[in-house]
Design a protein that fits this description.
Number of helices: 6
Largest sheet: none
Length: about 170
Amino acid sequence: MSERFASMIRVDQAGEYGAVRIYAGQMAVMGDRAPHSAEVAAMAAQEADHRKRFDALLAQRGVRPTALQPVWSVAGFALGAATALIGPEAAMACTAAIETEIDRHYTEQLDELGDDDPELAAMVREFRDDEREHRDAAIAAGAERAPGYPVLFHAIRFGCRAAIALSKRI
């Protein structure tokens, strides 16, 4: 397998792992009674499935996961908990920001993959569509009403881009 495809799988698995941890942090703060907790739980379940499928692809293709996974575990949980502490709309703003960036990331990957790896392309396309639904659900749930939304949104997107860049290599 080429290093290019290995890097794609590594970073995508790391992203799905981080998403699971973000939602875990949000649910730890919000519980199951807060506004939008049902939506968060549903998105978390979908992200857990994405992670499981990327875990299997890592093993199947002999790709090592990112060495930064322990960092993403703590950082993801902390981001989720912090945004949920700000309020339900901030938790949704976190989702909107991340999924906006992941939509961009997955679309770039699909362009790069072309017809070279149909199995990976099919997974990326499916997951990108799911992430778009998460973004749209977060916006419909009031993400843009979060305190300091523009700053929060862009700061989280920047952090997401940094995590992607690091996870590709480390």
